[in-house]
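Repro:
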Amino acid sequence: MRYKTELCYKGTNYSGWQKQPNANTIQQTIEESINLIFKDNIELTGCGRTDAGVHAKFYVAHFDSENIYNLSSVKKLNKYLPEDISIFNIKPINEDFHARFSAISRTYEYLISTQKNPFLNGLSMQYSNPLKIDLMNEALSKLYDYTDFTSFSKLHTDVKTNNCKIINADIRQEQDKIIISLTADRFLRNMVRAIIGTLIKVGREKISVSEFCEIIESRDRGNAGQSVSADGLFLVNIEY
């Protein structure tokens, strides 16, 4: 039977979602917990990679098992898991469901704290320089005009194409917080953090909106801004 697993995690203490040698990851932590508690041998398939330090308010994975999992299983698992990982639900799903390939969109949010805030330490990028939100919003709107985001992709990845469709891009300010939201059919590795790093240059008037577009059109990662820290990045939704 195939099971859909919904969860969240704070990624600060982990080297991302995906299991890898000599690293503490979300996938490995959950797999080992399930297999130990329920005497199983499952392997999780996640909806996508999140890099080291990135958080997820909502994440989806699936696994196959002959065991029966239900709400009682979720409670047992949460008692065993570390405090920075929480399972919302484990439920049976159609055999053709795939956590990664069945997804039609993903939404990320990036949180910038404009003043020192100990309650957001590790959960935001603290940035006190003034930013022109109107210019940043104008630059975000230009993302709809493009599909090739090579300029915002980590180099030497194993993907076949750097094309993505931006479905929504917006920015809002709530007192001392700036929240940037991006929804797309897929994201390249490091794409969101590279976009935000370049967007901050627009907000500081280091580059213009037209120069932001020229960076995209150049298809050259070296022309874009530095990637911002993982602290402020959250996966917040996946649509199926």
